[in-house]
Amino acid sequence: MNWETVVLLIFAGVAAGLGGSTTGIASVFSYPALLLSGLSPIDANVTNSVSLTFLSIGSTIGSYPEWRPKIDLLKRLAPATFLGGLAGSLILLMSPPEGFEKVVPFLLVLASIVILIPVTRARLGGSAKHLLLLQVLAGLVGIYCGYFGAASGTMTIALLIQMLGLSLPVAHAMKNVLLGLANGVAALLFIFSGHVHWLPAIPLAVGFFIGGRLGPIVVRKAPQKALKYFVACAGITLAIWLLWKQLA
Description:
single chain; 11 helices
């Protein structure tokens, strides 16, 4: 791996870290960088997931003041997200690689659309039924995170704001913790899968940590609408490129 690739992966990691911390979508930047470094789609996805643990660490530390008051709620949602991440990673490893390659462009389009869905901050209340529904939905997002993950952060943020009426910074902070668990358990499984490429994973992880640490600072001040449109356009462009590669 040459120095140009190392620099590309570090910058892609920083961009992905900032994107993940501000808009909830990181893989739009890091996944194509790994493809450009020569990895196959499934190896790129697995390596990306392992490196993402450093984004989770950096962003969780940076957003501690926002998520600490919600620790009781996090304890209720964490098991569902954790088990969802485990299930999604198992589905990925047991699925044929060709199937993953074919579905990725459509997952990216879905992710790009999700990020543009307006959030109304409508509260559903605090009954046991609503909590159960929230846990089920958190588990489903965890499955998606373990399988691919692009925009799983956006889905989690929208879910928390729509159902609990949380502010954007608090929802971001809780997303950092919950998806850190889902991605963490997936990463542990992937480490033993034989699909992780450590040489590109290291510079990407460095960029992830830097971007994740800076992200909570940015999210408190950045114009969210402009960021969302930028990341959505990047995701759709990548999806078109991957689909073109499949058909070529």
